[in-house]
């Protein structure tokens, strides 16, 4: 079958970008914001900067929204900070409410649809001191918090996201600060996961109760896993990896049940996930409306090496990254894929993974999707001309977006694309050194500088593309339709 035209994006497609509160705002001790676990966690990430200033969006939000408008954004995905809105248990901080009121008004006035995450890793310290994600008391606190958000912003915000990348928080909990204080992470993470699931369900139910026309969904961090070879055991290993890194969460969010794979896994490993009477009945009413997909890269699954149990690590050597792949005896291992390029930070660059992710999720769940993250992390600084020339990011975004278009042609329902990130902001593990923004922020890990905003070449390229609703690619993209010419093995190219 020959396709002669580029894919067509639906009218009203939401074009924007993405951020999270602790990674972009700064102002951690201003406006009544109270300390968060993530403040402590980010402080330990030396030699990188912590979350105290980052892009200083707290003071620059008007300028940032003006730049979004100029770019042609029709959406912006950002997070509310629980520690900015709730200063103590069941205690609302009016200054925090006012800050997001102003930001949301600014967006709405600019014609930009807010897509709002309720939780993106910044657990208030007071909630941590209560027992954090390990205590069921947090369910009631979370319910109070999300109801506060729906009450104040539900008139203007119709797209809500519950917990960012719950799967990643559970898989890499030690790295993301969820596991602090837990003694046996291997077993206890499932108990924490169930509590998070109940919080997710409370958010879904409260949104439908309180927000007229409100829609809510989860935000899986989706890393498609390809089998390393045609060896049938590699296929099963890839499926096991898929289950234990994403499917268990997606199945729960969509079907509101734990799937049979994870039930067997718990039985075999003597794990009690802490399900209480009434939980599963409550979950039944938490019917999501869409799925927000974060997809940066793919991985490769293969038979594990016996005798080794190792979690995946985003290690860094100086200012470069190196992925140390996981290996779980008898279950699965992950590995580097020789068919795709990698960023400086050792993340696979795989635009086809976007099409795969959307096809896979659509086939399994038949729910509309919005892309809430994808992006290219790089070292960057202003050049002699005072600009940032980032052709690698343009290539990345162009190829990923084109593959979203191909997935739409394949029949998948997608209603928006919001890459990570709008401005440069703090990386989860690598401070300001790893930049994702369409807009450069003049600050570094060692020197705050003047925090000036400088749109990168990718900003101007993206602006043209989105203002034409995905028609002006600036390049012939038809190569993406030719299966036979793509992806030589890295070793063949030598
Ligand atoms: C996602 C998170 C984001 C963001 C991104 C990039 O998983 O939702 O918060 O940080 O990953 O990751 P990193 O900053 O580690 O490169």
Helical fraction equals 25-40%
Instruction: Tell me the Rg in angstroms.
Output: 22 Å
Distance between the termini: 34 Å
So, CATH architecture?
Answer: Alpha-Beta Barrel
- Overall geometry comes to globular
CATH homologous superfamily, by name? Answer: Glycosidases
Q: What is the top-level CATH class?
A: Alpha Beta
Q: What's the pLDDT, averaged over the residues?
A: 94
User: Helical region count?
Assistant: 17
Total number of distinct structural domains? 1
Q: What is the number of strand segments?
A: 21
What structural class do you assign from the helix and strand content? alpha/beta
Task: Please characterize this protein's 3D structure.
This protein has a single domain, classed as Alpha-Beta Barrel (TIM Barrel). It is about 40% helix and about 15% strand. The chain contains 17 helices and 21 strands. A five-stranded mixed beta sheet has the order 8-10-15-14-11. Strand 3 and strand 4 form a beta hairpin. The two termini are about 35 Å apart. The mean pLDDT is about 95. 6-O-phosphono-beta-D-galactopyranose binds next to loops.
